[in-house]
Amino acid sequence: xxxxxxxxxxxxxxxxxxxxxxxxxxxxxxxxxxxxxxxxxxxxxxxxxxxxxxxxxxxxxxxxxxxxxxxxxxxxxxxxxxxxxxxxxxxxxxxxxxxxxxxxxxxxxxxxxxxxxxxxxxxxxxxxxxxxxxxxxxxxxxxxxxxxxxxxxxxxxxxxxxxxxxxxxxxxxxxxxxxxxxxxxxxxxxxxxxxxxxxxxxxxxxxxxxxxxxxxxxxxxxxxxxxxxxxxxxxxxxxxxxxxxxxxxxxxxxxxxxxx
Length: 260
Hints:
Elements: H1 2-8, E1 17-21, H2 27-33, E2 37-41, H3 47-60, E3 65-69, H4 77-90, E4 96-103, E5 112-114, E6 121-125, H5 129-132, H6 144-154, E7 158-166, H7 177-194, H8 198-212, H9 222-225, H10 234-258
Parallel strand pairs: 1-2, 4-7
Antiparallel strand pairs: 3-6, 4-6, 5-7
């Protein structure tokens, strides 16, 4: 509630929408008792599904801009003020579709036009939804923001890194170590295959296999860093399963294109 209060303080009349992924505590009742709109999902469909639920609601109500926030955001009053300033300064440019922020202590040059940003917090111009579409819910977790930001740039919009640092608690996914590794492996390949980069997908397959076998340490690739070496047997089997899953997705995409 404190985060919501701080973020909304600089925007009188702002619409606050919280997407609830089938929580089992009293958070929905608490939010609604404070006059906050809650969109309840029947099941946890992952980050992309939650964001899409919120964006579709806002878009249907003719909202022009949205601030997408993770639930584990812990901004200070000063950070919230800087978030507000970034909106006023950067959305004067109609070619800017997304404005990103920096997790505190992760330094990035201010005002830099970027090809990828962190998805924990970002402004989005909602009129880009029609040409770009919504986030791909097949990712479930890991890679969905990167895929979306690539699509935004492909449609001719800019993504700008505001340079504003914001505190982020980096909440755990709630999934087991093996499941986290599975999604990281699967989506690492899917991100490249979906964007017509088969060579990159092959390179990442090799890199992931080396990491799981303990022959290579963590790299600068976030998707590789998320793999926690599930075991000499389970790891390669997971990679094989991820390859077959991606082949299935490619076949589905090819079938859809042929049926158009």
